[in-house]
Structure of Precorrin-6A reductase:
Amino acid sequence: MASQGLDGASGAGEKASMRILILGGTGEASALARALAPRSDLACTLSLAGRTADPKPLPLPTRIGGFGGPEGLAAYLRDERVERLIDATHPFAARISRNAALAAEAAGVPLLAVRRPAWARQPGDDWRAVASVPEAADAIGAAPRTVFVTVGRNEAGAFARAPQHAYLVRTIEPLDGALPVPRLTEIRARGPFGAAAEADFMRGQGVEVLVSKNAGGPATYGKIEAARALGLPVIMVRRPEKPAVACVDDAAGALRWLAG
């Protein structure tokens, strides 16, 4: 019986597997990985940036770390004979998405972006939209307040410019001194987070302001619902611009694209 080698080449009479690279780190990427793992007609690799020390295991071969910019990614696509590239990275991973677009064009590989819809303001929401995390820190105001910060570890340090506030900062990874302010409470947790639990937490901690990126999706929307129910202001960081490429909302859309 013909067998497929480790390099993905097929034996006589067998159809070669389509090679797919998924740039992941989101729930959409995880859903796509689980859907594609049983497919014998596809050879899929999941790539993670490595910002989370202990990512949830997924049933696909996984590489950790960067590629060395768009040139490095283009070389990887060529060397590994990748035939489809799927960018399912975080809505705020603008640099990775730019690199993916440049690399796909250079290597001649079709690219699809999976971009979940942003959260939309609902009746009762009190949002102050800002363009960046440093702007969010400034938008809290001069008077000391208790602030719940949910922008991730890498950008939490921006709030050091406003040390008068009491901060509750929730991240997956430890801050490791990234936010040197007098009043800091670190919360280590991974979503999803329900609205009722979020409301209980905010009420119990005396939260006066929520700071969030507009990540979209259901996993962390509970904090937005809780802020609405409690009448709390939300400083909402707008999404960065991303390249104009073919895109879908979710993993199901990516599966349709692969079947097309």
